[in-house]
């Protein structure tokens, strides 16, 4: 766990909050008056209050109210620019108003059944009770409107000043109610740069098995949010140290392994965290910038094949042959189990499988054909692969690091040159499937696919050769192939008399 950050003063936090709340006052005050006239309490709550105190309040505003969802809908009807049910079964109604995205949720008093993956939703009657059921004290503050009255029954403001993550209720009770809060503690530590209270860490460690009751989808979402923070290392380290990672991402703690029989450590775990940090620092190279979940997952998981492929060599060395291919399979399996979308699963697995390819480049000995294949195999992930390969250099040997950087600079320059000449990103044979069938006189079937792959390999080997030359090469290749009657086109039928 990282050292506790330098505290800030309560007065500083309060001044920031006042400044932020004045900015949103026109919308907030109008909303408060409507609920008061309808006989209901309403308060700005949770992350919105926390962010105001941190001078980070955005355009998303969260409110809690004594009104039930159907009453909230009536109050908001005709006031908002648009209205929708964010999660009516959870008591939340969403609206947009003057550029603000607003969610209004009925006071809650729900909790987990010990054997359930989902909370049992029940509505509460007081703001204080609603705040007590929240995850952390920094999220358990409110501004009761329209007064405004600052409500902080659990010391959230003091914890913001101290930069500390604590729970309103005893952590064992809080994590029993919703075990996902253990992962959220790690996420907020990373997101806010706060330390985690010792009692919270102890409860996370003792209750790590409890995370198994949470659905894979909720674990996935929390892991993704953690990875997309500014400081994911902080949260990931906490997950590993408390044993939570062993239950949700066991491939990560498995990287803390020994290099040889003398128990010296090959710190693949530490290397992976450094690669993640270096990849984050390179995200401005991406066309759309960052944060980028695919790149961060690939950076974190790129070496997870090493524990499975470790071999002790004569003389005391160690090898990890094919850990890239094994790692790709493990990444695909783990991300699928966590219910990540198929596109993310395949993109991360592809990057993990390709991350070592560059190391065969050496001093630039690759042929243009090899460069074309590198680009072809990376496809639309090429920019991310560039980042991952560069981030994967963590050697302290400055001469070696500089040599690797220059080699990859050279490779990128060659890719740029060939791309300008040959449109590498859209590499394909000079002849398409219809042309292949017409030239060879065959109908659709496996033979067309074989011919297309032959022409693609020819294109990769020799670059653009033109349609006429491609036709000649295709016929030469076809002449040496075994022919089956099923591949030939039937003779044309005679025209009716």
Describe, in plain words, how this protein is organized in 3D.
This protein has 497 residues and is an alpha+beta fold. The chain has 3 domains: 164 residues, Beta Polymerase, domain 2 (2-Layer Sandwich); 178 residues, Hypothetical protein af1432 (Orthogonal Bundle), CATH 1.10.3210; 51 residues, no CATH class. Strands 3-4-5-2-1-8-9 form a 7-stranded mixed sheet. The protein has a two-stranded antiparallel sheet with strand order 6-7. α7 runs antiparallel to α10, α12 crosses α18 and α13 packs across α18. The C terminus is likely disordered.
Largest sheet: 7 strands, mixed
Shape: elongated
* Unreliable sequence segments: 260-265, 485-497
**Level-2 CATH architecture of the largest domain:** Orthogonal Bundle
Largest sheet strand order:
3-4-5-2-1-8-9
Radius of gyration from the CA trace? 29 Å
Layout of SSEs?
Layout: H1 10-37, E1 42-45, H2 47-53, E2 60-65, H3 69-76, E3 82-87, E4 92-97, E5 100-106, E6 111-112, E7 119-120, H4 127-132, E8 142-145, E9 149-151, H5 156-162, E10 164-165, H6 171-177, H7 180-192, E11 195-196, H8 198-206, H9 216-227, H10 232-242, H11 244-248, E12 256-258, E13 265-267, H12 268-281, H13 293-301, H14 306-309, E14 311-312, E15 318-319, H15 323-337, H16 342-354, H17 368-378, H18 382-391, H19 398-422, H20 433-440, H21 446-462, H22 467-479
Parallel strand pairs: 2-5, 10-11
Antiparallel strand pairs: 1-2, 1-8, 3-4, 4-5, 6-7, 8-9, 12-13, 14-15
